[in-house]
């Protein structure tokens, strides 16, 4: 797939309600970025610089779009920045994840992606830990991480992950989308509260398939993370520059 000539940022998940993208696109334009509202079908023409994806209850199947993007080798390496947009398009929250992996993990893909990010460069020189936060562990993922030279630290709930993470300070974190006690986005927000863990690369693990009801429930499960006051332009751009 060829890159778009203008290397724009695309806002996906709005469906026909393109007016909900006006605030985000104006913020980005004022920050010096080209941006537009697009649909997943547009990806057949070219690849944008990155995708900003609305995953709020008002999105047009944002979670389904995410699964489609991540399940296709042609689009899974496009950076995706999840957003929570209000009904009228105000920015309620930004979730700066490092990336997504769909389980079961494809052979070799973890290595390729982490090498592209430069996250394997120091694994031979230092004793580094990678945290895996899942309900029951992910053996295939853990083996791939160990082969890259990392020690795996397992946690099985968000609460346990916070307790361990603030002690061992893992080099990177892999977390299931849904944990027994919270979502991956809840855990991401908690880690961002601590100076020693706020910048750890955080990857979210997706199931190969999510039912429509699960996707809708997930949109509502992050409602409580939305700020009482919407993000200002400068607050939004500060998140974006760290993530894109």
TrEMBL record:
Keywords: Phosphoprotein. InterPro entries: Bact_response_regulator, CheY-like_superfamily. CDD domains: REC. The keyword Iron-sulfur does not apply. This is Response regulator. It comes from Geomonas limicola.
């Amino acid at each position: 797939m060829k890159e778009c000539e203008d290397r724009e940022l695309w806002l996906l998940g709005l469906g026909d309600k393109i007016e909900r993208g006006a605030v985000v696109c104006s913020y980005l334009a004022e920050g010096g970025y080209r941006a537009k509202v697009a649909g997943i079908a547009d990806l057949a023409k070219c690849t944008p610089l990155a995708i900003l994806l609305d995953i709020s209850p008002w999105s047009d199947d944002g979670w389904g779009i995410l699964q489609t993007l991540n399940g296709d080798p042609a689009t899974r390496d496009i950076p995706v920045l999840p957003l929570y947009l209000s009904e009228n398009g105000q920015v309620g929250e930004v979730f700066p994840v490092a990336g997504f992996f769909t389980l079961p993990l494809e052979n070799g893909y973890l290595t390729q992606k982490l090498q592209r990010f430069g996250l394997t460069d120091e694994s031979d020189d230092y004793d580094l830990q990678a945290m895996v936060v899942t309900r029951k562990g992910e053996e295939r993922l853990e083996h791939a991480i160990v082969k890259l030279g990392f020690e795996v630290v397992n946690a099985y709930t968000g609460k346990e992950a916070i307790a361990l993470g603030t002690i061992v300070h893992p080099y990177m974190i892999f977390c299931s989308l849904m944990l027994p006690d919270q979502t991956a986005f809840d855990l991401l927000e908690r880690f961002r509260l601590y100076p020693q863990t706020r910048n750890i690369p955080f990857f979210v693990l997706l199931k190969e398939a999510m039912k429509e009801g699960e996707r809708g429930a997930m949109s509502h499960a992050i409602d409580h993370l939305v700020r009482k006051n919407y993000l200002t332009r400068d607050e939004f751009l500060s998140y974006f520059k760290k993530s894109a």
